[in-house]
C-alpha cells in the first residue's frame, strides 16, 4: 500500500490558513507523483469527515485517460502530474466510460470558473452589479466580505494544480444513485425530475466525500459551447446577456456541488466558515400562498441577496449564490467584459422601481418571454411575486424534454441540487419577508437597474419577425437576412 499522507486535524487546519493567505501560485510546490505499479495502486487519505484514513484502490491508467479526454475536449492542457490529478476522483461506481468522461469534463470546465474568481478574490468590487446582485449590497453584507473571500480562495484551490501533499484529498464520484434521489429527467412534474447531482460529506460505503451524478447531469451542456454561442455576433443580446442560457452547464453543477463539501469551503471542522448549503426560502407568494423556494438559479439567488436580515450572511451559506457569482464573473470575462445582467434583479421596494406605475407591472405589459427575464417582485408588505419561468432556458428546463413546462407558467426551483446533510435542517431555512429597500442601494446601481428594466420594456415593443434579429439592445433595429 502506498501511503501518501496521514495528517492530523491540527496540521490540516493550519494548512487551511496557509492556503487562504498565500496560495496564489498555480502549481503547488510539494506535488509528488503517486507510485504506480502495473497501473493499479492504493492511496490513503485522511481528508474524511471523521479524519479516519480511508484507502482506495485506483486504476491510474483509466483515470488518466478520462482526464486526458476531458482536457482534449476543452482544448486544455495540464502541465502537472496528470496521473496524480486524474486520481483525485475515485471509484466511479455505476458509471460507464461515457458517464465518467462527462464527469471529468464538467470537473475540468469548473476550473475555469474557479480560476477566474481566484484571480479576483482579493479585489472584488462590492459596488459592481455582479457583487451587489449575487452577494448582496455592500451596505448590508460588509461584515461577511472576508468570509466570502476565504470560501472562494479555498474552493478555487481544490483542483489538481493546487494539490499540496498534506492536503491529499480524494472525491468519490458515483452514478449508481445510492440515496435513490435521481428522477425521471423528462417528467412533466418538476419534483419528479430529481436533482442534477447530490453530495454528502461521508459516503456510507467509502467514508469519503461523495458526489452522485444523476441522469439530468448527463444532459447538461459544455460551458464553452454556451460561451461560443453567446459570442456569435448574430446572437440577440437578450440571449447573450441572460445568465439562464449559461447556467446548466456541467461546469456549474460541479462548481455548485463542490461548495457542499466542508473541507472545500473551510467549514465545519476544517475552518471558520459556515456550512455552504442550499438555503430554503419560505415566502408568501402572490397568487400561490405560502411556499418554499430553494435558492438556486439567478432569480432566487438575486432575491436572496436582498434579504434584509442578519447582515446579508445567508448568501455565504448558499452554494448557488457563491457558485453563480463566480460563473457570472467568468461569463463576463468571456463576453468582452460586459456584465450579463439578465434575468434582472428585483427592483427594490419603495422607490427603485415604482410598483404603482403600470408600465412596471411586468406580467401585465411584457410578453411572457420578456417577463421571464424580470426579477422577483419584492413588496413592502413582505410578499413575493414570482415572474413566469424562462420559456427558453431555465434551471428547470432540460433541452431534451421540450414542452416539459407550459410556456409562461410560474415554477419554483425545487430539488436541482442536494446537500444530503442539511437538506431538511431547519437551520438553513429562512422566513423570506424582509427586503433591503432602495435607500440602502447605491444610486449608481439603482440607475443601472432601472435602465435595464427600461431596456427590457423597449425591446419588448420591438416586433422581430422570424428570421430577423434586433441589432439594438436599447431600442429597435431589425436586421433580416
Ligand atoms: C455542518 O455540516 C455538518 C455535516 O457536514 C454537520 O455535522 C454540522 O452540524 C453542520 N454545522 C452546522 C453549524 O450546522
Ligand atoms: C402584498 O402586496 C401585493 C402587491 O400589492 C399584493 O398583491 C399582495 O396580495 C399583498 N400581500 C398581502 C399578504 O397582503
Question: What topology emerges from the helices and strands here?
Answer:
Blueprint: H1 9-22, E1 40-45, E2 54-59, H2 60-73, H3 82-86, E3 89-93, H4 97-120, H5 129-135, H6 138-141, H7 145-156, E4 171-174, E5 197-200, E6 210-213, H8 223-230, H9 237-240, H10 244-247, H11 250-259, E7 280-285, E8 289-294, H12 298-304, H13 319-334, H14 362-365, H15 368-371, E9 377-378, E10 383-385, E11 417-419, E12 429-431, H16 443-461, E13 468-470, E14 478-480
Bound molecules: 2-acetamido-2-deoxy-beta-D-glucopyranose (NAG) (2 copies).
Structure description:
The protein has 481 residues and is α/β, with parallel strands linked by helices. The protein has one domain (9-480): Collagenase (Catalytic Domain), CATH 3.40.390. The chain is built from 16 helices and 14 strands. A five-stranded mixed sheet has the order 3-4-6-5-11, with helices on one face. A hairpin with a 3-residue loop joins strand 7 and strand 8 (289-294).
